[in-house]
Amino acid sequence: MNAPAGLDLASIPERIQSEVQRAIQRSIKGVEYIASSGPALGSTPKDILAVRGTMNLYHYRPVADEIYRVPILIVMATTNRGYILDMVPGQSFIEFLLRRGYDVYMLDWTAPKPEEKSLRMEDYVLDFIPDCIARVQQDSGETDVSVIGYCFGGVLSLLYGSIFPDGPMKNLICFTTPVDFREMKLFQNFADRRYFDVDRLIDSVGNVPPEMILSSFEMLRPASRAASQVQLWENIWNDEFVKSYRMFDRWATDTLPLAGEYFRSITKDLMWDNKLYNDVMSVGGHPANISKIKVPILHAVAEHDHIVPYDAAKPLIQKIGSADKEEVMLKGGHVSLVAGANAIKRLWPKLDSWLGERST
Amino acid sequence: MANKSNDPVAIWQTMIGEMEKGFNSFANQAMESPEFSKVVNQVGGVTAGAQKQLGEMMEKYLVGMNLPSRAQMVGMAERLQSIETQLNEIKALLQQNNAAARGALYPAAPKPPRTKRPPSAGGEPT
Q1: Burial class of residue A328 (count of CB atoms within 10 Å of its CB; 0-12, 13-18, 19+)
Q2: Closest residue on chain B to A353 (Cα)
Q3: I want to staple A317 with a disulfide (CB 3.0 to 4.6 A). Which of A7, A125, A226, A327 is the partner?
Q4: A218 touches chain B (CB under 8 A)
């Protein structure tokens, strides 16, 4: 009998041997996987400058002999933990920035407590961010601060920049930041105002539980969790794969609850009325129109972002008032844009060359 | 060496990948319909309502059993949080005082100078 075209019969025993070895390794490593804890994440040395309820401000200890004049404040998304930007040595965006000579601060969030359910959008935009900026100024001795906002951290940074257009924000970098919420089609459908009674939900639960946030993210790609577990089993013999899987899986499932009033405002003002895109957004009575922002801005978007589709992020650069503005579209998804092997090759060097020029 | 079109492992991996894409795409189409939103939110609304009612009933039951209710526990948590905040403030003050005292004995390591320039402006590439 003839072998099918392309099949080399001589390689079959070798292939079977390799698969048997992998099967044995899977059994050994599978037990190790269950018995061991994952890698330690977020371990770049840092000092906690301030803790106020859900708000945490860190300062990462500089490692370069000489640093840029302008410090950076990273504003994390309120749904997730900041250690996505500080996974493990060699795969940490924070470590990369420190080595490239930046002075890095991070506004990170912890789960709001039940009594913080009344936190509103204005608490985040008019209190937490300005408070952190002031502390960064005091700690660094510099007036100017560059701001990096990730996902909804980018939205908060845009709102802050629109209300305080005269500074002290010197540069703004947004990662995958939505502006036109109509284009977040599935989230729009989940939050359809005809059927989604946000008032009833918030009045019942106080803070939006993390399980609800996680399931709304997972519903965007309902088969991916099961498929990733199959991939894990196939690759469990591969230590590097397992390490990376554990890091990202832990982060993705480590979702934060959202303060009730803040969620109510996101739903009504952004998801339902699309106020940011329609230039009618206000926070605590202050108009927040992104055309007021004039500082240099870089917006990094991902080609295959299923959480913030490109059409939702695209108007940022069109609507912002800055003359020095750039959008860069890179391969990858919502998370792989900022962390992981692709980010190391693509986003980080791009950001360094853009920001270095503007940090003196 | 077998090529990928005949490699059973590669075929299996491709099949899983394609199934994932296909199912995601099919589910996304279904989730874009208004009917999906209606059903999900009705179920979610009923669950939230039932949770609220159950919470109220439990509250009454716990009062009857002379046990602390959730509201009382939340009140307690608030007081604990305020104590924690004050402790953090005291800790920060102590750290500042310690640092000041240490600084008097051993001067702190100098912060790096903020003089770095990008390579395009003649700065050293890192």
Answers
A1: middle
A2: B118
A3: A327
A4: no
Both tokens of residue A110?
């912890």
Question: In B, residues 85-114, which contact A (CB 8 Å cutoff)?
Answer: 88, 111-114
ipTM over 0.90: no
Tell me: the pLDDT tens digits for B108-124? 567 899 999 988 877 76
The pairing of beta strand A286-287 with beta strand A282-283:
antiparallel
Structure tokens belonging to residue A359: 């940090």
Rounded CA separation A162/A173 (Å): 14
d(CA B19, CA B40): 25
Tell me the pLDDT band of B104, cut-offs 50, 70 and 90: low
The Cα–Cα gap between A246 and A39 comes to 8
How many CB pairs below 8 A link A and B?
Answer: 135
Residue A174, CB-side half-sphere exposure with 13 Å CA sphere:
31
Q: With a CB-CB cutoff of 8 Å, which residues 251-290 of chain A face chain B?
A: none
User: What CA–CA distances, in Å, run from A57 to A79, A80, A108, A134?
Assistant: 16, 15, 6, 11
Tens-digit pLDDT profile for residues A21-72: 777 776 776 666 666 666 777 778 888 888 898 999 999 999 999 999 999 9
A102 touches A67 (CB < 8 A): yes
Give how far the C-alpha of residue A338 lies from the chain's centroid of Cα atoms, to the nearest Å.
Answer: 7
